[in-house]
């Protein structure tokens, strides 16, 4: 009996040891793998393959079994011929259309990925290659969208044709980006324009005085601060605040005029926005259409490569970003701050 008991205890120790050892190995393996996966990287997708796969599946679904066999046999023969004449195939290789996506938030943090994508394209692109940017943004801080427009301008300076397609919205800072393009396509009901600057800030000074709370603000320089949320605002600081807004608006208009000389900038820079069909009449865009139609029309002539800069975040970063983003959206619904386009 004691022998069986000792044997059972020994076996339990062995199983426990191997379980702990195996768990430790798995833990360290997952940790190393996670570190590797957390590295930022460029993801390249061949879009015409996706389109061809969808087309193939749709065609096959409409065929009988006999028709499927015949069609698949023809396709196999066709691919063999291409493989046989590989050298000739590469001599007549298509031009490349690089496809980028930019869905911009208020602070235009997405510009970090855009910077990497454009740098990658410029390192390999030929003069006959083109870029399509699928843009969606309602604008945000001027320094963020100013940098995004400057990144797109790198393509323009290198002589690489840039087309921007707006399926939903390119307003304010979003339109600052769009105007850099050689050609702008807009969906019929996309929102375009809003070439203006807004500054709004609440002031709690009167409320604080009622509660006998004093706020002291000391600056070296008369206009280190103009309007404040807690202190007393004067006519002088209000005037300076408005002057700064007008200066930003003037620079904004000049930039758009430089990028799109065809525009009557004074008639479209009142801060208004227009739907795509109306924006076409005002020459804010060049064509009415969608990004899907544009891509399909280019499939025969170009290789379609989608370039994405993947920035992997830890679980804590994703959780924190989600909370901050939610609070930012709530705050921005209540208040608009200076330097927001």
Concise structural overview:
This is Peptidase. The protein is an alpha/beta fold and 341 residues long.
State mean pLDDT (0 to 100 scale).
84
% residues in beta strands: 15-25%
CATH superfamily of one domain: 2-enoyl-CoA Hydratase, Chain A, domain 1
Distance between the termini: 84 Å
Low-confidence stretches: 87-91, 334-340
- Structural classification: alpha/beta
* Main pleated-sheet profile: 9 strands, mixed
The succession of helices and strands, N to C, reads HEHHHEHEHEHEEHHHEHEHEH
Helicity range of the residues?
40-55%
Q: What is the level 1 CATH name of one domain?
A: Alpha Beta
Radius of gyration equals 29 Å
Shape: flat
Q: Specify the number of helices.
A: 13
CATH fold topology of one domain: 2-enoyl-CoA Hydratase, Chain A, domain 1
Strands, count: 9
| Assembly annotation | single chain
> Architecture of one domain in CATH?
Alpha-Beta Complex
